[in-house]
Amino acid sequence: MSLKIKFGTDGWRAYIAEEYTFDNCRRCAQGFANYLISHGRQGKSVVVGYDKRFHSENFAAACAEVLAGNGFNVLLTQEATPTPVISYAVVDKKAIGAINITASHNPPADNGFKVRDETGGAIDPEGLLEIEAAIPDDVADVKRMMLNEGIAAGKIEYFDASVNYIAHLKDLIDVEPIRKAGLKILVDPMWGNGAGWFTRLLGGDKTEIIEIHNERNPMFPEMKRPEPIPPNVDVGLQKTVELGADVLLITDGDADRCGLGDENGVFLNQLQVMALLTLYLLEIRKERGAIVKTLSTTTMLDKLAKKYDVPIFETGVGFKYVAPKFTETNAIIGGEESGGYAFRGNVPERDGILANLYFLDFMVKTGKKPSELLKWLFEIVGPHYYERIDTAFKGDTAEKKQRIMDNQPETLGGLKVTGLNTTDGYKFSMEDGGWMLIRFSGTEPIIRVYTETTHPEAVKDILATGLKVAGIE
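-> structure tokens emitted (473 positions)
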């Protein structure tokens, strides 16, 4: 019996050679082709890109063969390419969508299959359900044109997506002041697609760019996975101090997410970074418009929205929810707790390259170091403390969900629970305006427990209570 493929928070991810096989990847590509054809898009162009994981370029070629076999014109990236660059290429090439072979921040043994629509953004949940339903049960039902044949017939074309993306960046940000600022910048692309990009964009003047983990190594040494959070970033943070760098810029495996370390080697967590980037857009760039955030993202954004009199919208977790609302509201920023942020004027997709450039511009425009920018933010919204625990689990998900409902806490860390939001997981509001969220990952068998509070001494107790409520002692 063939594997029933289900799309999670952002596409399908699985263990290479067990579930993630060439045949199953081809079945996914056929499902996407069937979906596009059912919407009258046959014969159009589709972008296919990939990351630096094991065999990604060959899985991408397999998908290109399926699309060509279904009559589509395929634009296949000539090398491993950041996800935001692939997404921009969809718009730039007037394509109708994209397939991206990447497992983003997952462990080394995984790979993944993402799809994008004609905006370069994530396809909404209803569309993903249509694609799932259109995936054939048997690989015998997959149409295919061999790679060499497709190239010879002009149905598959290799292309360089970087040139036009860089030209597009120049419409969004002037990098010359950053290049001339004389900063010492340490970059950790986590062995992934972000390698070389900041050197290319910012090198050649007074600012010095130093890269670590910038070769291809699908084992991701010195980290558990290419996810820009501790402990994966610890080597970079230590190196920042050793080198006396002004800032640490981090991109995840496919470079759609960003992470930051300050001049003291202290990690700026994802909630702090989104709040800082929002402050930059509102205060430095004087932009006005909506803020879109997932329910696992900081309440500091609500305080900024109130101060600057702009609307704010909350969605479920994942860019399949963020992207449609971001587009609908013409938001200035859309983001999620995982470190992915989208910006007005760009495609509705997370962009770790642009996010890091904007942060550098924030530093240059204000003359402040990262720690000083965080201090400024806290002077406006007050200090907020955040932490997250990820725990693998086995067993029935429905049973655990029922356990959470049956064991709702009245207090968390000594703070009264004031409400429960079950839009996406179980988010308990607290009397200080903080929250605790218990959520099942959409991409892995993991329970995540998150909290944000204005009481630092309560963080550990809140997380411990969350684990206990979920049945994980």
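The chain has three domains: 12-165, 183-381, 385-469.
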